[in-house]
Amino acid sequence: KIKTQIVKHLKINPLKLIAIPYGVDKNQFNLRVKGVMRDRLKIPKDRFVIYYSGMLYPKKGLEYAVEAMKYVKEKIDNFVFVIDGAEIFPGYIKKLKTIRDELELTDKVLFPGLAEEREKWYIDCDVFVLPSVDTEGLSLTCLESGGCGKPVVTTTILEETGAVIRNKTALIVPPRNPKALAEAITKLIEDKPLREKLGKGNYEYSQKFDWEKTRQETEAVYRQLIGN
Question: Which end of the chain has the lower number of beta carbons within 10 A, N or C?
């Protein structure tokens, strides 16, 4: 789908493009991982964990996700939203914390910093959230969370890239829409069978993305170009 976007927006001849997707390290992101996030952040086992991992800057739309927690809290109180990542846009974390505190969500939205061994954090969450508002590539975080058997809530931005499949691996909402985000998250909190269905679907989908396959396809292209 990214190839389609390039052809459409940059007017490049599709015959001159070969799209090879990223891979997921299945030795790292899998269902056998032992989680560490709940212990390190002292999150009770019965607390529903909403998780974001990635770079922290406006393109990711995290301010809308923080605002969405206000609407989630109106219906359900037993949750926490963990925002893990490195700030690459100066002042963005401060902005997010200001929104959080003004909405009286200080105990609901946590900023633990950049987590090492991300797979051990995915495995401890209940749903992965990626509220992007601008152009994305094939999101590895959506696929990595799938490797750990987790469902996703994201925006149509990611649907366009092929990183997720609507109602099979993820619930998908319009970008910049806190209420829609909240409704999707609340739905997954309340509907365990749906959560498990999407988690299973995301796991199965993620298995199609493999670094060995990526290597083989890339090597084949190079050999074709050099005539070998």
Answer: C
* CA atoms of 41 and 85, how far apart (whole Å): 15
**Is-contact 172 164, C-beta < 8 A?**
yes
Residue 46, judged by CB atoms within 10 A of its CB (0-12, 13-18, 19+), counts as exposed
162-205 pLDDT per residue, tens: 899 999 999 999 999 999 999 999 999 999 999 999 999 999 99
Q: How many CA atoms lie within 13 A of 175 on its CB side?
A: 17
Helix (H) or strand (E) holding 127: strand 127-130
Angle between the 178-190 and 62-75 helix axes, to the nearest 10 degrees? 50
CA pair distance 143, 121, nearest whole angstrom: 14
Phi-psi region of 144 (alpha: psi -120 to 50; beta: other; left: phi over 0): alpha
45-69 tens-digit pLDDT? 999 999 999 999 999 999 999 999 9
Q: What is the pLDDT of residue 6?
A: 78
Number of residues that this document lists for the chain: 228
Per-residue CA distances from 149 to 123, 204, 221 (Å): 8, 8, 32
The residue whose two tokens read 């212990």 is 39
**Eight-class DSSP state of 19:** -
Classify strands 152-155 and 170-173 as parallel, antiparallel or unpaired: parallel
What is the tens place of the pLDDT at every residue in 105-115? 999 999 999 99
The structure tokens listed for 9 are 């927006």
